[in-house]
Amino acid sequence: MKTVCLQDWVLKIDVEKTKEYYDSITVEEGCDCDYCKNYIKNCKTFSQEVLDFYTMLGIDPQKEGEFMEFETDTDEHLYMGFYHLVGEIIKKPSKKAKKWDDLNIIRVDNMKFTFTDELDLVPEDFPKPVIQLEFEVVLPWLLE
Ligand SMILES: [Zn+2]
């Protein structure tokens, strides 16, 4: 495992094991509703900065965790969701701050990220230890 410092987060991440897991699953195994398909299509337009962030962690952003879509007042769509990765949280920015408190948020281009060890929907065969990367992003509708 390698130690990764992101702003005030200190994490230990097994990038190779995480990448191996994402390589072992296919996009098609995920949900195929239009909301998820739209998110996956948007992944191809993510900036290099965002793609580098995912690559550094070993995550393929097209393969969920979980993707959730929320309507906004505009034509755009709010997406929230999460990915699992093999690793441990060594130090949180603040013990008291809530998950989406500014202290905890890592901003990469147009995306917001935070980490948690309160896990949801971990696949049975996901290598341990597991932590969860949560994201929030507003995206356009790209499907026909
Ligand atoms: Zn879906």
Question: How is this structure best described in words?
Answer:
This protein has one domain. It is 21% helix and 35% strand. It is built from 3 helices and 7 strands. The protein has helices at residues 15-24, 34-43, 48-57, and strands at 2-6, 9-13, 66-71, 77-91, 106-108, 111-116, 130-139. Strands 1, 2, 3, 4, 5, 6 and 7 form a 7-stranded antiparallel sheet that branches. The termini are far apart. The site of zinc ion has 4 residues, from α2.
Summarize the structure.
This protein is an alpha+beta fold and 144 residues long. It is built from three helices and seven strands; from the N terminus they run E-E-H-H-H-E-E-E-E-E. Strands 1, 2, 3, 4, 5, 6 and 7 form a seven-stranded antiparallel sheet that branches.
Keyphrases for this structure?
144 residues; alpha+beta; seven-stranded antiparallel sheet; 3 helices; 35% strand; globular; binds zinc ion
List the helices and strands and how they pair.
Layout: E1 2-6, E2 9-13, H1 15-24, H2 34-43, H3 48-57, E3 66-71, E4 77-91, E5 106-108, E6 111-116, E7 130-139
Antiparallel strand pairs: 1-2, 2-4, 3-4, 4-7, 5-6, 6-7
